[in-house]
Design a protein that fits this description.
Elements (H helix, E strand, L loop, with lengths): L1 E7 L2 E4 L19 E6 L7 E5 L3 E8 L5 E8 L7 E11 L4 E10 L3 E8 L6 E9 L6 E6 L4 E4 L9 E10 L5 E13 L25
Antiparallel strand pairs: 1-2, 1-4, 3-14, 4-7, 5-6, 6-14, 7-13, 8-11, 8-14, 9-10, 9-13, 10-12
């Protein structure tokens, strides 16, 4: 069973749903190549979801380069599979070729990281996932290539990601335990088209042994 939690000024309230406008940058403010950017300055714009018996808290924290961040503090019960996730309404129109960037840091056991994109009706989901994610201790930008984003589930027959209405960031228990995972920026970017054919791999050696010249 899932609980929905609203975060207000660092506290958590059960049973509330948030419908807020995303704190995104206007097109004129975006760096070149960025389609849409989202900051993490407003905790009240996010809704928390957690499976039963999982403890979770969303709190503000400083990010990298003067940005503001949000941290998910979580605690999974011993021997219980579960998840925690934070969801934000965010309308995205994906170009034909795109890439994603996510600013992240944290600590804790290895657990699954999932970045999900939901359709307007919520029935169709696309995702990027790392089943054994080890959070970096220092702020890092996680690059996500288009080929790493796939259709997760839903009734839609066209599985190409063209538009989404909400963003979900999920921690799925693998090793469980407790820790934190923090985010300070998300961006959708234009990317160059992949080559029609990738070059064939070529083996080479940087040194040679006597009687065996380097390749």
């Amino acid at each position: 069973m899932c609980r929905r939690i609203r975060c207000v000024a660092g506290a958590v309230l059960l049973g509330a749903i948030v419908l807020c406008a995303a704190p995104t940058l206007h097109a004129a403010q975006l760096p070149r190549g960025v389609v849409r950017a989202l900051d993490f300055s407003d905790a009240s714009a996010w809704t928390l979801h957690a499976s039963d018996d999982v403890q979770v808290r969303l709190r503000a924290a400083p990010g990298a380069d003067g940005r503001k961040a949000l941290c998910l503090d979580y605690r999974f019960p011993t021997g219980v599979a579960g998840y925690v996730e934070m969801q934000h309404p965010l309308a995205l129109d994906f170009p034909a070729h795109y890439a994603l960037r996510l600013g992240v840091r944290g600590h804790g056991p290895r657990n699954g990281l999932q970045v999900k994109f939901l359709s307007t009706d919520g029935w169709n989901v696309w995702w990027y996932q790392q089943p054994q994610f080890s959070a970096p201790a220092q702020w890092s930008t996680l690059p996500i290539a288009q080929r790493e984003v796939g259709f997760a589930w839903g009734p839609r027959s066209d599985h190409r990601l063209r538009h989404s209405a909400a963003l979900q960031l999920t921690i799925a228990a693998v090793q469980g335990g407790h820790g934190e995972l923090c985010f300070d920026h998300f961006a959708l970017l234009h990317a160059p088209a992949p080559p029609a054919q990738w070059p064939a791999p070529r083996a080479s050696a940087s040194s040679a042994q006597p009687g065996h010249p380097a390749a």
